Amino acid sequence: MENNATISRRTFLKRSMAAGGAMMASSLLPADLFGTEHKQEGQEEHVDELLQGVCDIHLHCAPDSKVRLTDELSFIRDAQRTGYRAVMFKSNDFSCHDRAYLIRQAVPGFEVFGSICMNRVHGERVNPFAAEKAANTTGGLCRCIWMPTQDAVYQNLSYYGKKEGIPVLDDNGRVLSEVVHIMEICAETDIIFATGHSSPEECITLARKAREVGVGKFVVTHANSGIWTMTHEQIKRCIELGAWIEYSYITNLWGPGTRLPDFTRLSDEAFAAFARINPERSFITTDLGQPGMPHPIDGMRRCIEALLRNGLAQTEVDMLVRRNPSGLVGLTEL
């Protein structure tokens, strides 16, 4: 017989799940609000020329441990109809490469990939075993292993003043052996090793080690974003060490008056200045999917328009949102 504590806990979990489902339902916005309604039988495709061939390799959809704007399958249907080439999903807590395998069966012909983040859900330290299993999952669709994000030591120090979380360096500033092991996995399988929510200084140290290990697809995550913003000189240093640089357009959509009000909004001019540093070694993502924020497809459209409006050439935009991200997930040669 169950004791009262067990009954209480189960009741709590059931109520929590019910509440979470209600939040999800209430936060989902109609897909056609962004011109991305699902294609019905007999309905013509409506490819957006501005978005044709786009590859967004950092966005968040349900299922997840946080409420999201839409779910992965719905997003892929919308992206395919709009003219996207490929998408790679990110969850801070769960792997999504296994779901990509199933989504490909539901939406044939569309390139969808997943990734895995080294957060606490996989243990108190960066977990090479979890990374190895992700890389070897059916379909080979895990195309990125991110270092800790929400559980990064740097994020905890910056937000809460506490040196806790999952480290990537030891107390002497050396890259931890388990992190090196994951670099080796990424090098062997030719997938992305991404810095996650590491500090700018940690990113430079990781870049130096990644070059030593032979990682071909080392990515500095959202180098224009919040507490992770790098100086132009730091970005150039990482590129010299062989890094690819990600810029996320969410920075130009959050801020006061949005559902993410605590962040400082970046101007389109400043975003374009980042993108111009070295388009050949950079790419752009949206990092969107949060309820109350623009739909990722709308965000990508606004980003491309802003880049062109601020003087980037079409060839540069093509590198940033099409060629380079496609190469990083293995669709084209880099």
Task: Characterise the protein shown here.
It contains eleven helices and eight strands. With 334 residues, the protein is an alpha/beta fold. Strands 1-2-3-4-5-6-7-8 form an eight-stranded parallel sheet. Strand 7, helix 9 and strand 8 form a beta-alpha-beta unit. Helix 4 runs parallel beside helix 6. The N and C termini lie far apart (61 Å). The N terminus is likely disordered.
Number-wise, the strands total: 8
Structural class: alpha/beta
Question: Which stretches of 5+ consecutive residues score pLDDT under 50?
Answer: 1-43
Q: What is the CA-CA span between the terminal residues? A: 61 Å
* CA-atom Rg in angstroms: 20 Å
Question: How does the overall form come out from the CA principal axes?
Answer: globular
Q: How much helix is in the residues?
A: 40-55%
Largest sheet: 8 strands, parallel
Helix tally equals 11
Strands in their spatial order, largest beta sheet: 1-2-3-4-5-6-7-8
Q: Can you write the helix and strand succession as a string? A: HEHEHEHEHHEHEHEHEHH
The overall pLDDT average reads 89
List the helices and strands and how they pair.
Blueprint: H1 4-27, E1 55-59, H2 72-82, E2 86-89, H3 97-106, E3 111-117, H4 128-135, E4 142-146, H5 153-160, H6 177-189, E5 192-194, H7 200-213, E6 218-220, H8 232-240, E7 244-248, H9 268-276, E8 282-285, H10 296-309, H11 314-328
Parallel strand pairs: 1-2, 2-3, 3-4, 4-5, 5-6, 6-7, 7-8
